Amino acid sequence: MNTEKATCKEVMNHICDNLGEELDSPRCVAIKTHLDSCDSCKKYFTSVETTIQFYKKYNVEVDDNTHKRLLDFLGLED
Amino acid sequence: MSEELLIQKAQNGDRAALAQLVKNYEQTVYNFSFKICRNKERAEHTMQETFLSMVKNIGQFSGKSKLSTWLYTVVSNNCLMLARSQKKHDYSSIDDEDNLISEENIADWKITPDQISENNELKVILDDAIQNLPAEYRVVFLLRDVEGLSTEETGKITELSIPAVKSRLHRARAFLRNELNKKLSYEH
Ligand SMILES: [Zn+2]
C-alpha cells in the first residue's frame, strides 16, 4: 500500500483504529498527515468521537429501592 | 478490605462480605446492563440474575481473572442469549463497508455530549440507534469504547479473536455514527 498519500476513504476506514489504539506505523503517519489538512475527515473523526462520548455519558444509577430489591432477591438484606 | 480478601471471606460463607461485593459492583453491572438493554426493568432483571449467579458460583471463582471481567461476561452472555432468541437482525447494512463509511454524509452536529443529562430527546435517539446495532456488535462497542476495557479483555469476554474485536468495533462505531448523523446533523 502507498504510505505517502491517504485518501479520505482510507482515513475514515482507519480512523476507528486511531481511537484508543496505538498507531505509529508509516501508514498511520500518512493518515494523520491527511487528517491535519482535511476538513471532512476532521468532521468525521469528531463525530465518531462524539458518538462514543454520548454513550459514555448516558448513564443510569442504582437508586435505594433498586438496591433494596436486589439484596432482597439475593437474600442478603442488611 | 481488598477484593481478594472479600472473595475469600464470601467463599467461606461470610454473607456480609458477599453483600459488600454486590455493593461494590451493583452500579457497574446495572449501568452496563442498561446500556445493553436500553430498558430499566430489563436492566434490573439482568442485574439480579447476574448477582444470583455470582452468589451461587462464588465458591468456584478461582481469582485468576478479575471479578469485574467475570460479571461483564455474565451480563454479555445474557444479552447475546436474549438476542439469539429474538428476531434476526438485518446484517446487510453493517456488512457493507462501502456504504458503512461514506464520504458523502459529513456534517457538523448540533449537539454536544455535555447536553446528554437534560436532553430526553437525545436519549431516545441514542437508545434507538444502539438497538438497531446487532447484539454481537453492541457488546463489543460497549465493553471496549464505553466501559473502557482493553481489546484483549473484550476478546476474552466475547470469545472473539483480537482482529475480530477490532473489526466489530470499527463497524459498530461507523454504524452508530451514521445512525446519529441522520438525526443530529445540521442539514436535516
Ligand atoms: Zn480526508
Structure, described:
The complex is a heterodimer of chains A (78) and B (188). Chain A has 78 residues and is mainly α. Chain A has two domains: 7-37, no CATH class; 39-78, no CATH class. Helix content of chain A is 68%, strand content 0%. Chain A is built from four helices and no strands. Chain A has helices at residues 8-18, 26-37, 39-57, 64-74. Chain A is rod-shaped, with a radius of gyration of 22 Å. The model of chain A has no long low-confidence stretch (mean pLDDT 80). Chain B has 188 residues and is mainly alpha-helical. Chain B folds into two domains: 1-90, Rna Polymerase Sigma Factor, Chain: A; 110-188, Arc Repressor Mutant, subunit A (Orthogonal Bundle), CATH 1.10.10.10. Chain B is built from ten helices and no strands. In chain B, helix 1 (3-11) packs across helix 2. The termini of chain B are far apart. At the A-B interface, helix 1, helix 3 and helix 4 of A face helix 2, helix 3, helix 7, helix 8 and helix 10 of B. The complex binds zinc ion.
Provide tags for this entry.
heterodimer; A: 78 residues; mainly alpha; 2 domains; B: 188 residues; Rna Polymerase Sigma Factor, Chain: A; Arc Repressor Mutant, subunit A; 10 helices; 70% helix; binds zinc ion
Task: Describe the structure concisely for a colleague.
Chain A is built from 4 helices and no strands. Chain A is mostly helical. The radius of gyration of chain A is 22 Å and the shape is rod-shaped.
CATH fold title of the largest domain in chain B: Rna Polymerase Sigma Factor, Chain: A
Total of domains of chain B? 2
CATH architecture assignment of the largest domain in chain B? Orthogonal Bundle
Q: Give the integer mean of the pLDDT values of chain B.
A: 88
Structural class category of chain A: mainly alpha
Query: What is the H level of CATH, i.e. the homologous superfamily of the largest domain in chain B?
Result: RNA polymerase sigma factor, region 2, helix turn helix motif
| Largest interface (CB < 8 Å) | A-B, 36 and 50 residues
Tally of alpha and pi helices of chain B:
10
Helix content of chain B: over 70%
Provide the CATH top-level class of the largest domain in chain B.
Mainly Alpha
